Every structure is written in structure tokens, then in C-alpha cells.
Amino acid sequence: MPNICVVTGKKTTIGHSVSHSNVKTKRAVYPNVTTRRLKNPATGRMVKVCISARGLRTLKKWDSEGKVYDLAKMK
User: Residue 28's domain is classified under what CATH number?
Assistant: First the structure.
């Protein structure tokens, strides 16, 4: 399962671990992504999505603003 947020598009990136002697080794930097069951406001049904913590905050903001979105189309 790829770690990609459906709202923000955050995904795994590759970087370097740098030691004291400046030797660089590859490492992966993972986003804070979890699988959640959320209610889709467009249909009123529960949808299972991979979403980051930032994405959850964004959806909460969209709900308070009354923005219309469809989680099934974001997948």
C-alpha cells in the first residue's frame, strides 16, 4: 500500500542520513499517513481513505467553511 494522502498528496520521499564523518546513506522519510474510515459528505456513505494528519485538519476546515468535496473522487 503506498503511503499517499488523498487530500494533500504527501508521499514517501528519499533523503540522506549524514554521519559525523559526512558519509551519506539513503533513507526514506515517511509522511504521517493513516487509513481512516470517513463519511463522504457528497454521498453520506463511509469511505476508507489513506489520509495524513494535515489532511484531516484540512477536511475539518472545509467542513466548517461549508465547502463541497467528494472523497471518492479524490481517491
Answer: 2.30.170.40
